[in-house]
Amino acid sequence: MNAFTDLLGRLLAGAIKLLLVLAAFVFVVSFLLAALVAVVLVSLWSLVTGRKPAPVVMFNRMREQSQRYTKGVWPGAARGEPPADVVDVQAHEVNNSTRRGKDAPVEADFTRR
Questions:
Q1: To 5 degrees, how large is the angle CA 10–CA 11–CA 15?
Q2: N or C: which end of the chain has fewer CB within 10 A?
């Protein structure tokens, strides 16, 4: 009788596992279908209004900023000329005196009005 209950337990466990796998499959397929419907609706809405969808605009803006700020940073990228707007300046010492001519810590300038 012990072998019969073991077989029955294995069959029941296998059936539950199969049911859970099928439920996960249905969930993933329904999620992908909902995403597809959302993409189609947003695309149709953008065609009707004549404007690009907000995620596309944001993605393009981030990509342009990434290309602008990381030009020449990544290995293998083409080495270009340094930016022309860099200007060398002569360094000079900054005086920490207040308007009244007294020497005071820098923090004191923020507390007086």
A1: 115
A2: C
